[in-house]
Write a structure and sequence with these properties.
The relative contact order is 0.11. The strands form 2 sheets. The protein has a 6-stranded parallel beta sheet, with helices on both faces. The protein contains 13 helices and 12 strands. It has 350 residues and is α/β, with parallel strands linked by helices. It starts with a strand and ends with a helix. Strand 1, helix 1 and strand 2 form a beta-alpha-beta unit.
């Protein structure tokens, strides 16, 4: 059985910044999630609050309450937020210190490394896992072009912005493909993928830029050599034209992706956290054209429907599909069966 863990989101659970926690609550997870600590939502079930599905994961007001009530007692404590710039929120510091004093191993996916925080390091006595600790250049791989010879279909799951559901969509497609009899794997590129127990991948934004393409290629090669899947889904990060951290072209050019699933938030006008300076997300049609110029084709558009009713989401999906001439799917509302059909068609034609 996986080791039991608490997840910290104090004050963030009902925001896009808790996307790491949301992934762990939905599953899968490297750890058994015994509870979430978020005083604002204490007493509720984390699954029901997230998407209406009861999952038996309680939300506690503090670490002490969680430790007292949990059986088995958690051995790990996960930082469950992904903040702008990867900084540790002040609201989580007291929780982390309490968990460290209680003897829990701290698991951190932020850029701000807990092992470099003097107070937390002393309290944790070495029980810290910093997922985003950069690896030395000598341990990294440079791109060779070997990926071009792999016969598995590669699909990049890109987005119009960050915190828009790319990883969730990739995981849903993987499971749907497997249920339909297709071999499918996901290459993770962020800390949440590692926390979810995915076998193949690397941490994109903790990798020296010169080696991002090589590490991506290496993960794809190992995945194919060990599992021989029909389909390899490449998890996107940020967005092609997000000025705070443009990314995604590597998945097409270096990962040699044949197709793209493009995640879109129709109600989001500006890039996340840049609303005040009115940093506008480019038009969807332009992004589709740009992806074509990079050498791939958008096979389907998926919608991030947070805050939308199923009826409103369906209306939006229909309008976008009519305008773009590309299938549009709402993964968390309607599932991804249409995308599996598209993948089957592409495999047959490839």
């Amino acid at each position: 059985m996986p080791e039991p863990a608490l997840v910290l989101t104090n004050g963030y659970y009902d925001t896009v910044f808790a996307k790491t926690t949301h992934g762990l609550v939905r599953g899968p997870s490297r750890y058994w999630i015994s509870g979430v600590v978020d005083a604002e939502h204490a007493g509720q079930d984390a699954g029901r609050l997230l998407d209406g599905m009861e999952r038996g994961i309680p939300i506690w007001s503090c670490v002490a309450a969680a430790l007292e009530a949990s059986n088995p007692r958690p051995t790990h404590c996960i930082v469950g937020v992904a903040t702008v710039g990867g900084r540790l929120p002040a609201s989580l510091r007291a929780d982390l210190e309490e968990a460290a004093r209680a003897g829990l191993t701290l698991v951190n996916g932020l850029h701000q490394l807990l092992s470099e925080d003097d107070r937390i390091r002393v309290l944790a006595q070495g029980r810290i896992i910093d997922i985003r600790r950069p690896r030395a250049a000598s341990a990294l791989r440079f791109w060779t072009g070997e990926v071009r010879a792999i016969p598995a279909l590669r699909i990049a799951v890109l987005g119009m912005d960050c915190a828009i559901g790319k990883r969730t969509t990739a995981m849903l497609i993987r499971e749907a493909c497997r249920a339909a009899g297709l071999g499918a794997e996901v290459i993770y590129t962020g800390q949440t993928g590692w926390l979810q127990g995915l076998e193949y991948g690397f941490i994109f934004d903790a990798t020296l830029n010169d080696f991002v393409s090589g590490e991506l290629e290496g993960a794809i090669l190992r995945c194919y050599q060990e599992t021989r899947p029909d389909v390899i889904l490449l998890e996107g990060q940020s967005a092609l034209r997000n000025p705070s951290g443009p990314a995604g072209a590597e998945l097409i050019c270096s990962g040699d992706a044949q197709g793209v699933i493009l995640q879109h938030a129709p109600r989001r006008e500006y890039f996340e956290d840049f609303e005040e300076i009115e940093c506008r997300i480019p038009p969807l049609e332009e992004e589709i054209e740009l992806i074509g110029l990079l050498g791939a084709k958008v096979w389907a558009i998926t919608l991030f429907t947070r805050g939308m009713t199923p009826k409103a989401a369906g209306t939006e999906a229909g309008a976008i599909e009519a305008a773009c001439g590309i299938p549009v799917v709402c993964p968390l509302i309607d599932g991804v069966a249409r995308i599996v059909d598209i993948i089957r068609g592409q495999l047959a034609a490839w």
